[in-house]
Design goal:
Cytochrome Bc1 Complex, Chain A, domain 1, five-stranded mixed sheet
Amino acid sequence: MRSELWRRVLQMKACVMFMWLFLLLLSLQHAPKAGQLHIERFRLKNGLRCIIAQVKRAPIVSVSAAVKLGAEHELGAFASGVRFMLSQALVTGTRLQQEDDLIQTLSLAGAKLTFSVEPDCLIFHVVSLPQGFDTALQLLSDVLIRPSLDEQCVEVARRKTLTYQRMLATTPLLWAKQSVREMLFSGSPYARPICGYERTVKRIRREHLLEFFDAYFRAGNMSICVAGDVDIKLVGTHLAAAFRALPSGLAPAVERVKISPRSEPQHRARQFYGELAQILVAFAVPGINDPDAPKLLLLSSVIGDGMGSRLYKQFREVHGWAYYAKSDYELGIEFGELLIHVATESRKIEAVRKALEDILLELHVKEISVEELKYAKRMAITKLEMSMQDVSQLSSILARLEVNGINPRRLFDLRDSIEALSAYDVLTAANRYLRCAAVAILLPM
């Protein structure tokens, strides 16, 4: 009987995953064009900040709820990992539905419920077909207002958190990303893994989760965004009904974390089973609200975004060294990371490392050409627009900005800011931020 139940649960999970991928592809095919996106912001009576992004012709509806509960809130010896474990517990069941029932309800509505633990907040996300929106919204409100959080949910969440920790330690790229984060932000809460440590997670009890839930899951500490081809007035009514029971009030204030600049480069190396050697280079940079954010987006494109980037030209076209070479500016709120990732054959890793140093050094001393600047701007703006065209991604970004007190308009202003930048701006950004790298090297056994 139990095996049959698990078989049905796995089948439903597979159906939900297939439906979610199908919906994501549809959303990209029907991406909004200029003038098709309209945004309304308002507050409910209890203080919950709401955003509705009306995207004409979008085939799905995406809802994201952000909770201002960052790494700096994980105070005390036991607290590291409490945000991840609490999120796992919340999506495990509500007072009305256990996990299996939730999966079945989501499947019938053509919806998928996920969460992400960001350095500055938690995001709970549900995407559905338009006809399943009411069900999806109600489920999300139940998760955030009426979670079960009984002992069974807590233990399930603990097991899943410990499983994620093992995956983090044994998956090469995840290990590398965590390693560079520890080096970049050493001594701050942002250096800790989002899932905590085994010793801390094993000490977290139900009362700890309840304490965090009661303190931070309040209307004044949250935001919600709905994105899709929706009726703004009607959705506003649905939001008011779904979240009227959310407690009002603000969360406890904590001291703002300061990131100390690093004085020298650091590196770590580790062997993994695999075929390719990989190198991950990271720099600590400001977040999205900083005036230099557009410069960093453009600088990242110059380094490794597309076939016109320096990484591609040097590593793929000239030398044929790399199977993968890319850079990304991972936008945060208070801070971000500029990441450079290269995968190559083990015997070429030293040549790649040296060439990468030369590429970064040249950016410090020489302005890029007019043609390179045009290409990098086009790539940076395209990447930015793609994030706004996918309603699933759009709702998460807007909710995250809103809960951190940043006007969502900032996302749209970045395009104009990038367009106005010069080659000299790229040079100054490189000189200011491409220093004291954190490097993780993965070598195949």
